[in-house]
Amino acid sequence: MTKQEVNFDYILRSNLERVFNERDDDKRRTAIDDLFVEQPVMYEPTNIVKGREAISRVAGDLLKQFGPAFRFVPEGAAVGHHGLAHLSWHAGPEGGAVTVTGADVAIFDDGKISQLWVLLNVR
Fold it and tell me: pLDDT by residue (tens digit) across 2-16?
């Protein structure tokens, strides 16, 4: 798959829904296998997370920390080209007030996320 053929919107939205909103560990691991290269790196504001298992653990811990109604919701469509894409999002309890906004910026390799930066907006 060439970089021009990557459906950035589908992959980054799937990352929010199938990884960072997924509470079932097995389903989340399957999604990560589908969406990420074998040795991905995720850059958070205060942490660098290496590997699929570590990314799954971070996502699961985040959901446990914020409770059963917490969800990430994409804002608009992902924008990207030449293997780099960006998707804005907001998060908070479903049906409640937004508690955080941010964006995911990803570098793709062979149609999968190889590097993911989680950018948080300061409120």
Answer: 444 899 999 999 999
Rounded Cα–Cα distance for residues 98 and 95 (Å): 9
Radius of gyration for the alpha carbons in the chain, expressed in angstroms and rounded: 14
How remote is the C-alpha of 34 from its chain's centroid? 13
Q: How far apart are CA 31 and CA 112, in angstroms?
A: 11
Distance, CA of 112 to CA of 110 (rounded, Å)? 6
* The three-state (H, E, C) secondary structure of 35-65, written as one string: HEEEEEEEEECCEEEECHHHHHHHHHHHHHH
Report the alpha-carbon distance of residue 47 to residue 28 in Å, rounded: 20
Give the DSSP H or E segment for 83. none
Q: Calculate the CA 61 to chain-centre distance.
A: 14
Identity (one letter) of the amino acid at 5? E
Q: How many CB atoms lie within 10 A of CB 91?
A: 20
**Structure-block tokens of residue 41:** 């790196």
> pTM of this prediction?
0.92
Compute the mean pLDDT over every residue in the chain, rounded to the nearest whole number: 94
Tokens 């991905």 locate to 40
